[in-house]
Amino acid sequence: MTSNVTAVSYGLKLSPLELEELRSLLTGSGATFRAESRSGDPRYQVYTADFTLESGNPADIAALRQKVAAAATAGVDTAIVPAGLRQAARKLLIMDVDSTLIQQEVIELLAAYAGKREEVAAVTEAAMRGELDFAESLHARVAVLAGLPAAVVDSVRGEVKLSEGAAELVAAFKAAGHVVAVVSGGFNQILGPIAEELGLDHWIANELEIADGALTGRVLGAVIDRAAKEKYLRQWAASEGIDLAHTIAVGDGANDLDMLGAAGIGVAFNAKPAVRAAADAAVNMPYLDAVRHIAGV
Fold first, then answer.
1. Is there a catalytic annotation at residue 96?
2. Total structural domains in the chain?
3. Domain of 39: which CATH number?
4. Which of 96, 225, 280, 289 is catalytic?
5. 41 classed as catalytic
6. Which among 60, 76, 63, 81 has a CA at the least distance from the CA of 20?
7. Which domain holds residue 11?
8. CA nearest to 103, candidates 163, 23, 155
């Protein structure tokens, strides 16, 4: 049984030698090329190769991904994507927020107002590496915010910057009729205005508790952890009538691993090593819109 697959290479610069080595690797793995193209812009370059693989076994495609990743040179990444996902009439893109959709970790920006930024940043790093339980670490980090005036939330909202290419990525998916969602271990008070501005179809995050004009140091309700992220991916895909095989998940930390694993393709964006190793593809440059080339949008 054969399968149609696409290899998408992207980097600040793609040399002819690197592309020839990729072609040789794919051919040696049983690929028969059907079409090749070059694209990109002044920021980064993209090479796309459509090919037929002798085996359609998912395990063989996963093995090819590992082989391609092991042979990659610094500054160039290659995603191996099923043609069915790239050609799907309707897809769902779901993204993490902190250090993915946006450049910062919001909890660290908030903690700076309590004089605890470095302390909180260390805990965040450990949680994103998967060394700490996310929910427990979130409660501990939010606790240091107790007593801060609610106005600091507005101040932090003004400090948040979208990742480069984020708005372009969302706009491209929306213009093509696809669905865009975000699920965050951060906070609704920050995410809400961003979601509205970008016109996101679905979004959810944690809710900071505010009482008498101040942060209480607690979050309301269940924490959005790695299990919740996968749950919302499945829930939103089902509600939109989109096959899970036609979903693209993007994230950077251990909290995203279940979501990345459940999606049709999981993309690690400037991620921790463990996340890069587990994901189907990686983007190791600052341009989030590279994901549209992976997805064929």
1. yes
2. 1
3. 3.30.70.260
4. 96
5. no
6. 76
7. 1-87
8. 163
